[in-house]
Design a protein that fits this description.
The radius of gyration is 14 Å and the shape is globular. The chain contains 5 helices and 3 strands. By secondary structure, the chain is α/β, with parallel strands linked by helices. A 3-stranded parallel beta sheet has the order 1-2-3.
């Protein structure tokens, strides 16, 4: 019987996914292919992760276009669900965790 799973992607994961110089770049690419094939169910991240990610990218990366690419990757994705912890989703998500 299949298990209903979901994934929550954090700052480090997204940073590795789009930064070819990151030591986890290849692994992040492999995992994202699996996530996008829906092997693990819905894909979540949060506005907190988004803010941390673009701030980190802006501070650590020289190329501004990579920072924009990171942010847009999340914002324009039709598969990644952004959770706002001020929303009604917070308490059910916290209880599920």
């Amino acid at each position: 019987m299949p298990v209903n799973m979901e994934v929550f992607l954090d700052t480090g994961y997204f940073f590795a996914l789009k930064n070819e110089n990151d030591k986890n770049f290849d692994a992040a690419q492999t995992w994202m292919r699996r996530f996008l094939k829906n092997e693990f169910g819905s894909i979540y991240t949060s506005f907190l992760v988004f803010n941390e990610l673009v701030t980190l990218a802006r501070l650590m990366l020289i190329r501004q276009e990579l920072t924009l690419s990171l942010g847009n990757y999340i914002l324009k994705s039709d598969r990644i669900i952004l959770v706002d912890f001020r929303s009604p989703d917070f308490n059910p998500a916290r209880k599920k965790f």
